[in-house]
Amino acid sequence: MTIRYRFTDRHGGTGSPPYDTFNLARHVGDHPADVSRNRARLKENLGMETIVWMEQVHGARIEVVTSMHLETVPACDAIVTDNPDIALAVMVADCIPILMYDATKGVVAAVHAGRNGTFLKIAPKTVRTLQERFGCTPTDIRVVMGPSIHACCYEIGDDLAAVVEKNFGKGYMNGRSLDLQKLNRDQLTEAGVGEGNIEISEVCTCCDHDYFSYRREGTTGRFAGVIWMEG
């Protein structure tokens, strides 16, 4: 089983400012026809007939996807499938797009890990879903964290910083800057995923103008992390 994945950027699509040009989200105010064209272009680029999206709500609900006829899973922040005909997508503009896979069992997952989802431990909960539903072993699971906002740009308020330090420890804060990638990595290793199986992109979306960034722009589009299998 071969696992494929890709992280898009903001280039190569159809769209006008501030969504220029490859916005893939329907909920941000972009013209629906442009979003539809961009999603169709993504399918063509990947060679996939089905890409399943999420109505992301910054929670910790995880859904297993079996139907090729479902475009969007409502009210969830992680989706999992063992169907090689389905690609899974997560949309972001600073949150961490986490892609997981177990090539031995033939299972993939797409996870939306923003601040709230991270606090709710959505990444290790997805690992548990892979274990319980598909018999995966954590040491066989590989994880890729795509472009996202890094501590260099992720300053939070004093009250929230105190919450992080109280619940997770001071090691994730540098002054008022939160290291969301480190927090997710440590949650995953605690769940049994080997640190060597976790890849973290060094791209900060707030620094890099090739990506949409809510922190930098406010009203903006969303890029995507997409994962699928080839048997």
From TrEMBL:
Keywords (A to Z) from UniProt: Hydrolase, Metal-binding, Transferase, Zinc
CDD domains: YfiH (cd16833)
NCBIfam families noted in UniProt: peptidoglycan editing factor PgeF
Catalytic activity line of the entry: adenosine + phosphate = alpha-D-ribose 1-phosphate + adenine; adenosine + H2O + H(+) = inosine + NH4(+); inosine + phosphate = alpha-D-ribose 1-phosphate + hypoxanthine; S-methyl-5'-thioadenosine + phosphate = 5-(methylsulfanyl)-alpha-D-ribose 1-phosphate + adenine
Pfam family, one: Cu-oxidase_4
Gene3D superfamilies in the record: CNF1/YfiH-like putative cysteine hydrolases (3.60.140.10)
Family listed: Belongs to the purine nucleoside phosphorylase YfiH/LACC1 family.
Domain of life per record: Bacteria
Keyword hit for Metal-binding: yes
UniProt KW Cell membrane keyword: no
Protein name per UniProt: Purine nucleoside phosphorylase
